[in-house]
Design goal:
103 residues; mainly alpha; three-stranded antiparallel beta sheet; elongated; binds zinc ion
Length: 103
């Protein structure tokens, strides 16, 4: 299941309380139905980000650093906390540095 992201503060830190999902950082409460709606929206965006991530990874494999970074940033524009993109960005930096040392 996709994480529930607060529409107001973008936090994903929720507790379930009295049948409601309560955001721990801004205290907004969501009903089950609202929570479901938010989660299904994030599912749609996830399909989009995972495609972009695959492309970013391919560019990185081809040592196309400019494009790899571009796609990585696109993912982070959609989802600033995307774990895959953050990992890819680390790989990107490591690969860039190691290439620079070799040259
Ligand atoms: Zn919130």
């Amino acid at each position: 299941m996709k994480p529930l992201i607060c529409e107001l503060c973008s936090s994903n830190d929720f507790i379930k309380q009295d049948g409601l999902f309560r955001c721990q950082s801004c205290n907004t409460a969501y009903t089950l139905e609202e929570a479901r709606k938010i989660m299904s929206v994030s599912i749609d965006r996830t399909g989009e980000t995972s495609n972009l991530l695959v492309r970013a990874q391919r560019f990185l494999d081809d040592n196309n650093f400019v494009r790899a970074r571009e796609y990585c940033e696109k993912v982070l524009d959609i989802d600033a906390n995307n774990q895959g993109a953050m990992l890819l960005r680390k790989k990107w930096i490591i690969k860039m540095l190691s290439k620079r040392f070799k040259n």
